[in-house]
Amino acid sequence: MNKPLACIPKIRGLSWDDKVAYLAYKASIVQGPSPLVTHSFQDIWYVKTMYLPAGTRLIGRKHIDGHILKLIQGKVVLLFEVGQKYYEAPDRIHSRPGDRMVAIAQTDIIVEAWILNPDGETDIDVIEASVVEPADEILSRGKLIAAQVDNQLYAESILLSKD
Questions:
Q1: Alpha-carbon distances of 72 from 15, 61, 101, 163, rounded to whole Å
Q2: 84 phi and psi, to 5 degrees?
């Protein structure tokens, strides 16, 4: 994949968050295999391990709290609002509050998200709700943006066909 940023829509007037929401919504309506995810607890940490095959796109929800990502195996490119960065295992990435990224697995990858869990919470949904925005928020936003984008593209195609 020479141009990972090509997966982000180049539509004028959309913020990075809007573009990622659009991409998340479009990805949600395409049926595909879900990544294999396992969960474990180590001392004060909740560890979410994801196994992603090459070519997988993972659309990140906005982080409420930052956490540590450990790339255990493989190569991945992360797309951010300001550009892209390539990582190769073994590597460590620190996410910050407010981060929203898109990951594209260049090879099969294994990545661990290490999330501070000092209260010993074991309900995965509760932990996830404290770390990232709800999935339905980004998908609802993406659906609205997709409708606007589709209407804009349709209108432009009609105008272009009259020339």
A1: 32, 21, 19, 54
A2: -135, 155
In whole angstroms, what is the distance from residue 91 CA to residue 14 CA? Answer: 32
Number of domains within the chain: 1
- Which domain CATH number covers 119? 2.60.120.10
Distance separating alpha carbons of residues 103 and 117, to the nearest angstrom? 24
pLDDT one-digit tens code per residue, 79-100: 887 788 999 999 999 988 888 8
| Residue 49 identity (one-letter amino acid) | T
Least reliable range by pLDDT among 25-39, 42-56, 75-89, 126-140: 25-39
The whole-number average pLDDT for the span 114-138 is: 88
Q: What is the mean pLDDT of residues 120-138?
A: 86
On the 0-12 / 13-18 / 19+ scale of CB atoms within 10 A, 24 is: buried
- For residue 14, count other CB atoms closer than 10 A to its CB: 17
Mean pLDDT of the chain: 81
Name the residue range of residue 15's domain. Answer: 4-161
Contact 107, 55 (CB under 8 A): no
Q: Please, which residues have CB within 8 angstroms of residue 119's CB and are 6 or more apart in sequence?
A: none
